[in-house]
């Protein structure tokens, strides 16, 4: 693990403008082994993290702007509308920790809403993306201490080496505010979501709070439409994982022999995304052959949806109390402010 304090470096590859940068040296993705392991299972699957190469990220940005895809615009509107209440609930001089440094738009809305935020810490597994995002915020908010930690945000010990910040009133308790927008919690299965909530409870401490975006259960038609847009952008995003396999792993795949397949599994309360084989076929990854029957699928992503009662119950079991919850007028999306149960 590498720790850089005060960002004073003569090496241009190192961060500048940050109060600290910690590289926990997360293991690099092993795309090949993960593909082979995932497609070798009786129910073939791949991790959704492999959607996000440069093209995949650009496609996802297009998805977020689609009329059918409500989560992004609804969450942004909510964040903009709840600023005064959020500032009052969170209190002054919060130290904000973002789990997965995403779009700067959301964190800027939060920082602008808070009363004299003292610190912002960005966490992301991608070193280059993390440093770009954190440096941008440091330049935009020179009065806020900005640090960065390169780590998997599911790492339970990711804050263990964080420098202890100085405070004018050393007797005052530190106020840590976790930020986890985008309903990323929905990409975890319920057991993994509980582990994440338990870990953040420990990381943020006895005075900690967590601001988290959660997609809500709703009518099946709205959910299905959100993941099957008329322009086919989501289909291209889903199939891009096959393009990556061909380009990066030399896989022998006929991408046209797979079709995008997304549906709402009402029993499990989740959207499932798959790539469905339209005929009997084999694909080859290295020396490995994988046989697909017509209609067989490659499971690429889940997105769990939660009612307010369900999510409140799950967070309570992991040591959190609901301090506030906000929803839009159509009950499409929710934002929770949670506080640790002492």
Features:
342 residues, alpha/beta, Rossmann fold, 9-stranded mixed sheet, 10 helices, globular
General description of the model:
The chain is of the alpha/beta class. It folds into 2 domains: 2-28 and 78-218 and 306-340, Vaccinia Virus protein VP39 (Rossmann fold, 3-Layer(aba) Sandwich); 52-66 and 222-304, no CATH class. 33% of the residues lie in helices and 25% in strands. It has helices at residues 31-39, 54-64, 71-81, 83-90, 104-113, 127-140, 190-204, 220-226, 233-249, 308-317; strands spanning 2-5, 20-23, 95-99, 119-124, 145-150, 176-180, 209-215, 258-265, 270-277, 281-285, 288-292, 297-304, 320-327, 333-340. The chain has a 9-stranded mixed sheet, sandwiched between helices. A 3-stranded antiparallel sheet has the order 8-9-12. A two-stranded antiparallel sheet has the order 10-11. Helix 7 links the parallel strand 6 and strand 7. The radius of gyration is 21 Å and the shape is globular. The two termini are 32 Å apart.
């Amino acid at each position: 693990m590498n720790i850089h304090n005060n960002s004073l470096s003569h090496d241009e590859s190192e961060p500048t403008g940050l109060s600290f940068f910690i590289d926990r040296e997360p293991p690099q993705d092993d795309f090949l082994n993960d593909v082979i392991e995932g497609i070798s299972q009786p129910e073939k699957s791949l991790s959704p993290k492999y959607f996000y190469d440069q093209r995949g990220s650009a496609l996802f940005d297009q998805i977020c702007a689609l009329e059918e895809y409500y989560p992004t615009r609804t969450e942004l509107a909510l964040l903009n509308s709840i600023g005064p209440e959020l500032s009052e609930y969170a209190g002054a001089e919060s130290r904000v920790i973002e789990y997965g440094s995403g779009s700067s738009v959301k964190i800027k809305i939060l920082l602008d809403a808070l009363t004299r935020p003292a610190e912002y810490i960005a966490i992301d597994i991608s070193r280059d993306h993390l440093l770009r995002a954190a440096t941008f915020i440091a330049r935009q908010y020179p009065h806020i201490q900005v640090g960065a930690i390169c780590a998997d945000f599911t790492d339970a010990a990711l804050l263990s080496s964080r420098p202890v910040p100085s405070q004018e009133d050393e007797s005052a308790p530190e106020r840590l505010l976790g930020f986890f927008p985008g309903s990323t919690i929905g990409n975890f299965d319920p057991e993994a979501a509980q582990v994440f909530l338990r870990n953040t409870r420990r990381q943020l401490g006895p005075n900690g709070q967590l601001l988290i975006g959660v997609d809500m259960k709703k009518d099946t038609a709205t959910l299905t439409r959100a993941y099957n847009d008329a322009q086919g952008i989501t289909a291209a995003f889903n199939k891009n994982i096959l393009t990556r396999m061909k380009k990066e792993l030399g896989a022998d795949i006929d991408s046209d022999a797979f079709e995008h397949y997304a549906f709402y599994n009402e029993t499990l309360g989740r959207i499932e995304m798959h790539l469905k084989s339209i005929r009997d076929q084999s694909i080859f990854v290295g020396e490995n052959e994988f046989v697909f029957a017509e209609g067989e699928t490659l499971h690429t992503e889940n997105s769990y949806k939660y009612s307010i009662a369900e999510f409140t119950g799950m967070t309570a079991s992991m040591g959190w109390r609901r301090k506030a919850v906000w929803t839009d007028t159509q009950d499409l999306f929710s934002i929770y402010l949670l506080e640790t149960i002492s």
